[in-house]
Write a structure and sequence with these properties.
alpha+beta, Beta-Lactamase, four-stranded antiparallel beta sheet, two-stranded antiparallel ribbon, 17 helices, globular
Length: 501
Amino acid sequence: MTEFSLLVFLSALSLALTSGSILLILNLSRHHKFGERKAEAHHAHIPPIPRLGGIGLAAAFVAGTLAYLTSGVSPENKEECLVILVSALAMFSLGLWDDLRPIGAKKKLAGQIIIASVAYFSGISIHTATVPFTHESLALGLWAWPVTVLWLVAITNLINLIDGVDGLAGGICLMLMILLAFLGTQGCCVTHIAAGMIGALLSFLWFNFPPARIYMGDGGAYFMGFLIASLTIVSSQKGTIFAALIAPLFVLALPILDTSLAIFRRGMQGLPLFRPDRRHIHHRLLDAGISRRKVVLGAYVFTAFFLVLGFAVFWSHGEHLPILIGFGVFFILLAAGRLSFSREWFAVGHVLGNSLAMRSEIQYTLAQKRWLILEGSRCPDLVSLCEDTAFVARKIGFATLRIGLADGEKNWLLATNSTENCWRFRQNLPGREDCYIELTAPACNAAGQNAPISPCQFRNENTFTILAELLAGGWTKAVAQWEQRHGSPPCYGLNKPNPWS
């Protein structure tokens, strides 16, 4: 079998296996709710969708890698291929565990670090760093371990963080695999594994493109991110080929930009750095009324431009890196201007001032949220828990509170300064359209208007929304704690005496 025929065979095999696996998962999900997990507030999709698409990707990877290793070809780095096979499956298993039963961010991070460390000591490592522009190579020595682990864990989580809209993460992974297929050297398994994953991702995107029928889930995102990171290390010959290590970072421009902005925003506001929210770039575009399909296609165009830059970095051996970075920055600013983001990005002083001003309010709300979550496991009934929620909402400064449960709703007037011109926030209990929390506060009128300025507890609508999200998140977790302890559906118990009468 010729080299080209082998690449085509691996791609076709992976495509077929992924399609068959996903069709099986969808059939099981349709009849047995297999692979569905309760929705979360920050998710962009509403109906429950199976999150086990990563199984199809992992199955194709295993079959394709084993087919390559048993095809009669003797790759120079066979041991490294086997290490990638085992460690990528371990990372997939960690994510799959979280898909089936959430295990918490700290435990997941610890598991990622352990898997990445095992991969390092098994031979997947960055031992040399090349200084840009001078091409001087530096031996990392004892720093090789933390640098390698950081690389593997960071890219793993970058892919997971961008997996927020139908088809987005899959499309970016596909472009990365196209790049890696060209980066692989003669006698290296990188090209063959990447070729197989190109077929698998094409099949996955058939089911994942808007409107999605399946998601890759944390299992698929962790698997793809770790696989991309480890293949990049092998293709760069452990860091000696600078261009092969840098080129994939260009393709990851969108998730790197999005994650950097999210960490900066949360850090300035005093929020937990890894707190999920709906303020990522794709969420903001969806909230602006742009359809999911247009958001994803726009992200593809953005990433395809940086894919070209990645090829240019590799083909030029990094010689024109400053010029290519300049092209990338110009393209980002152009895209930001078209989407009306640039004015906000350049108003650094204004953003910093607002963020620092609301830090104390956010910290106070976080403390109240933690207390409310603890009350969820202590309250004898949901009536008491909702009263506690009203107590917290009043202390934070909301004007009204409405909580709907399965058997009715209750309203609280928390302040006398309520007006018709209000900011309003509503969040459903994940997976329950009949259970919700709704908060309002008087909107601050713009200066210069003839109408009198209404009493305003919050600095601006953004502050109101963030604090409302925090309180709603605390209420959601408190109700989940109560349900877990009592094993009862979220109801007021209206057949019992009404404590408000």
